[in-house]
Amino acid sequence: MTNLSPPPRLLPPVTALLGRTFRAFASTSSVPAQAVPLPCDPKPIEVTITPEPTVTRSELRVEAELAARPLLSPVALPSIPHSDLLQNSVVRVGVDAQGWVRSQVLLATSGAKHADQWALDISRRVRFRPLPTSRTDRNSVPARLTRGELVFQWHTLPQKSTASGGE
């Protein structure tokens, strides 16, 4: 059996009555006027913004367990010309008891292959303070490697535009 009832017919709205209740309320109610005090002598607010330290040269940071073993000599890093700001190159290294880097892997790329290659080359050549001789026995199995990350924070120089596009 099918339902044969006609669809419902909606009554049209009576527009003459719209807002009548609000008009009645507004005509019988009044809001007392209140004076809003204005400042007599507005003073500007002084805001001091401390700028982030500006990187003016590339820097090498040693992190994790390896941070306890200082480098034997400081590492001078170059500024890198590039068309965009570079991220940090991060190289994980393993250092033996004598302070030599024995393993390395690039964990994070800077966005420029030549900067990352530079980071890998430098991380191969750095030397850390050796462990005290009492902690290493020359006749036994070599002590475990001290692991850590070398973070190369590159100072980026504007690169002159070339027709070839470069890297």
Describe it.
- The longest helix has 13 residues, at 113-125.
- The protein has 167 residues and is α+β, with helices and mostly antiparallel strands.
- The chain has helices at residues 20-28, 113-125; strands at residues 59-63, 80-82, 89-95, 101-108, 146-153, 156-158.
Q: What proportion strand?
A: 15-25%
Note the total helix count. Answer: 2
Low-confidence stretches: none
Strand element count: 6
| Helix proportion | 10-25%
Q: Estimate the global geometry from the Cα principal axes.
A: elongated
The CATH architecture of the domain at 60-158 can be named as 2-Layer Sandwich
CATH class of the domain at 60-158: Alpha Beta
Stated plainly, the CATH topology of the domain at 60-158 is called TolA/TonB C-terminal domain
Distance between the termini: 77 Å
Biggest β-sheet, characterized? 4 strands, antiparallel
Class by alpha and beta content: alpha+beta
Mean pLDDT value: 83
SSE run: HEEEEHEE
Q: Give the strand order, joined by hyphens, for the main sheet.
A: 1-5-3-4
Report the radius of gyration as a whole number of Å. Answer: 36 Å
